[in-house]
Amino acid sequence: MLTGAIDGGGTKILTGVVADDGTVVARREELVVSRAIPDYFARCAAMLKACVAEAGTTLEALRGVGMSVPGMTDGRQVFGSPSAGWGAFSALEQLQPLLGLPAERIRFENDINACALAELRLGGGGDDFVWLTVSTGNGGAVVANGLLVRGHRFCAGELGHLKVEFDHPYRCGCGAMGCLEAHASGPAIARMAHEAGLSVDAAGCAALVREGNVTARRIYDRAGLYLGRALAQVANALNIEKAYLGGGVSRSIDLLMPALRTEFDRLVLPQCRDVTIERTRLGCDASLLGAASLFGNA
Ligand SMILES: [Zn+2]
After folding, report:
1. How confident is the model over 2-13, as pLDDT tens digits?
2. Ligand 1 center to residue 196 CA distance, Å?
3. 181 alpha carbon to ligand 1 midpoint, in Å?
4. Ligand 1 centroid vs 175 CA: distance in angstroms?
5. Are residues 201 and 100 in the same domain?
6. At residue 297, does pLDDT exceed 60?
7. How far is the CA of 23 from the centre of ligand 1 (A)?
8. In terms of domains, do 77 and 136 share one?
9. How many Cα atoms sit within 13 Å of 11 on the Cβ side?
């Protein structure tokens, strides 16, 4: 069977029709033109309908429609999204009239949680793992005993706000000091590069490391150290088997890994050290596939 999927991001919307084995049989991708909630959801619905037509099926014939959203959600309500600029609202009330499907065939999930679900069901799998996005921000999700951990208020897994620097902390977007996101995200790497006199972003800094630039190498070592510090805390708390890294900066995981692994091994309990840390193989489709996998088989 086929499932409809919407990856609703703060800057980009991706929609698809996804087969049970994770094959995306039709897809659309657009930059977000309006973040006004009615406009945004109308755009999502129109893009999904175009995918459904292209796949030669109908909305009614789908298992259902799953949507990942860039904020906390209980599956129907969104409790606000800083990246999209949304307050609290009912996502179901927005999408359901546009699709004309019964409420039980529309589900919502946080975007990073969706990535972890995709990893669980269609990716590298594992019963105990974390997903860590390293991008414009650092988001996380936790799978324990084979189940996604949503938490008391649906905000479990905020690994980007683990504190990793106490002596020279930077202020995070959340308002606190020393968060992982403030020290090992794309913007954090770019900031370290600028402070060191390099006018490059995170990707440019990675290119310099590959050319043998010693200053750039130090910056990636620093970011890797912070990631290792955060993951060691997670491993001690959860005894994870794997940590999957996603997001743009994870393309340079080979540059991060030496310092990451050294710091991780230094801080983790010996009995919790057996952790595979690798880049997701789901690429940019992780959140879309996770939205599809909200209906079980897909
Ligand atoms: Zn923070």
Report:
1. 999 999 999 999
2. 23
3. 6
4. 6
5. no
6. no
7. 35
8. no
9. 1
Kindly list the distances between the CA atom of residue 27 and the CA atoms of 41, 89, 288, in Å, as whole numbers in the listed order: 17, 27, 10
Q: pLDDT tens across 58-98, in order?
A: 999 999 999 999 999 999 999 999 889 999 999 999 999 99
CATH number of the domain encompassing residue 87: 3.30.420.40
Do residues 74 and 179 share a domain?
no
164 and 90 fall within a common domain: no
Which burial class, exposed, middle or buried, applies to 214 when counting CB atoms under 10 A from its CB (0-12, 13-18, 19+)?
exposed
What is the Cβ-side half-sphere exposure of residue 262, based on CA atoms within 13 angstroms? 9
Q: How far apart are the first and last CA of the chain?
A: 8
CA of 182 relative to ligand 1 center, distance in Å:
7
Are 55 and 134 members of one domain?
A: no
Q: Determine the distance separating the centroid of ligand 1 and the alpha carbon of 222, expressed in angstroms.
A: 18
Q: What is the pTM of this model?
A: 0.95
Q: What is the 3-state secondary structure (H, E, C) of 146-215?
A: CEECCCCCCCCCCHHHCECCCCCCCECCCCCECEHHHHHCHHHHHHHHHHCCCCCCHHHHHHHHHCCCHH
- Tell me how far the alpha carbon of residue 253 lies from the centroid of ligand 1, in angstroms: 22
pLDDT in tens, 182-223: 999 999 999 999 999 999 999 999 999 999 999 999 999 999
Per-residue model confidence (pLDDT) at position 82: 85
**Residue-number span of the structural domain to which 24 is assigned:** 2-116+285-295
In a shared domain, residues 103 and 54: yes
Residue 296 has pLDDT above 90, yes or no: no
Q: How far is the CA of 119 from the centre of ligand 1 (A)?
A: 25
Q: Which of 6, 220, 257 is nearest to 108 (CA)?
A: 6
Host H or E run for residue 95: helix 91-99
Q: What's phi and psi for 94, nearest 5 deg? A: -75, -50
Distance 185 CA to ligand 1 centre (A): 11
Distance 201 CA to ligand 1 centre (A): 21
